[in-house]
Each structure stands twice: as structure tokens, then as C-alpha cells.
Amino acid sequence: xxSPGTKFVGSGFAAWGRRPTLIAAMAALxxxxxxxxxxxxxxxxxxxxxxxxxxxxxAKKHTASPKDSSVKLAALGPSALKSSLPVATxxxxxxxxxxxxxxxxAISEGATSARNVAEFVFNLRLARRIEKKLKxxxxxxxxxxxxxxxARPSLVKRVAAANDLNANLFLSIHHDxxxxxxxxxxxxxxxxxHFSDRFSGYSVFVSRNNPDFKTSFAFAELLGKxxxxxxxxxxxxxxxxxxxxxxxxxxxxxxxxxxxxxLVVLKSTRMPAVLLEAGSIINRDEELKMDSPERQDxxxxxxxxxxxxxxxxxxGPP
Length: 318
Hints:
alpha/beta, Aminopeptidase, eight-stranded mixed beta sheet, two-stranded parallel ribbon
């Protein structure tokens, strides 16, 4: 049974049986012992103890010698993660279940844009556009996840809903802001508002505590690559000391993938999970772009191309 307060928008969802688990193809990618602050993203943090999960075994045994496997990526640093993109997962698009999580709720709306529009409004609009694009490109099982309630309880609800559906991929849609200490005052349409034009761009987040971190990172890499291919730049401020407790490690300086170990929707889902900050709505220029159908189409295309590359057709044995 789905958790109360959770809705799936679209044509409804069927009773799905269990499918084969995804093949995590990044055999060379060991867990990077990332040191992350105990920060939360604005209202999206859930306090609780951290729990490390075992990563699932790869479908095929790794043939490297014990000596080879003793090489630690930690000694090489985050740049070791960017050497090559992962091999795509073999799957059937028509059965591949993508849950598009609409960040925040109607009563806990997340950040407020420079022009006083709630982040939830941006999240819902973009998620609907991505859903439509994915379905039109061969992913009919895509589902839009809308959650009700206050911030922290809603996190538990959305994770439970995604886990109940046994989805193949969880993608949470958000729009970015900055810490309050970086905000400046201005007036928009006669109303006091806040802005910060200092930072802009998208960001992609994954959690090392997700039970399938390797596959989560694989999709995050593809998504970041596609966003960049669309001419978009990622937000670089998360590595800077000025971000304080919102500072996060950059796992790939080419694609804008960050580590965020303690975020509930990333660490507690039982499937690969990625969070996309599509762009900054506290930046006055970028807010206007994020409000445009053209930018929404660009991001929808990036997500869809990443999903297509990630979910290559399974052709069966040769």
C-alpha cells in the first residue's frame, strides 16, 4: 500500500511485478570515502543516524586480482571518478520504471525565487514536462510523484512510495537557491524580495549511502554530461567555504556531480537515486530562463537522453 499523502499523476499505475535488478556496470568504481558535512539542503534534511549499506554484487564476477582491487580511489581523489563514463545498463525501456519526484510540497514549498514564486511551482512544472518527454521517447512507465504534508514527514512518504513501487530509477527534481547569508534585498512589483545573482547553474547529487551508489553515480554522470551537452553550466559554489554547512564534495568537475550522503531521498530509496537542481531561481536572470518553456524543454531533453543512454535495449544472448 502506498503511503498516505502520496499521489501519482498521469494515467495511473498498474500493479507491477518485480523485474530483474539493474546491472551496475562501473566495476572499476570503488566507493570513494567522501567526507561530507552534516548539513541539509534548506528544508530537505531529515535528522537521523547515518547507516552504510552494502553495495549489491555485480551480475558478473570481477576478474581482477586481489592486488588490482587493493587500489584505492581515495588516494587518487575525485578526479579518478571522471576518467570515463559508465557502460549503460541493459534494459527494456517499455518496462523501465522511472519515478520523477516533485521536490517539496504545496504547503512546504521549498525555496522562494527572486520574484517570490515558490520552488514547488517550478519543480512541478518541470517534472511534468520531463514526464511527458520520457513517455514520448519510450518510457511509458514513468510516474510523477507528488507528496503532501510538511517537509520532514513528506520525505519519509516519498521514499516509502518509491520503494513500494520497486522503481528502477528515482529522480528528484528541484531548483536551487543560496544560504540566507548570501541573499540581497530588492523590491519586485512593490513587494520586498531577495536575490543573489552571484551563482547560477545546475547541480546533480548522489549519496554514497544509497544501496546502489554505483548505479546512482552512473546515471548522475550521464545526466550531467547531457546537461553540459545542451550548453548548460553547473553550479560551482558547493565546494566553496562561503557555503558553510551547505558545502559538498565535487565528484566530477566535468559534469557537476556532487556527493550528498545524508539526504534522505537519496540514501533511503532502495533503487538508484539522483537529485537534480535544475537551475538557480534566486538568480534574477536565471529565474527568467527557468520560467521559460525553452529552458524546460532543454532540461527535459537532457534527462531523456541520459535515460536512453543509461537504458540501452537488451538484445539477449548473442
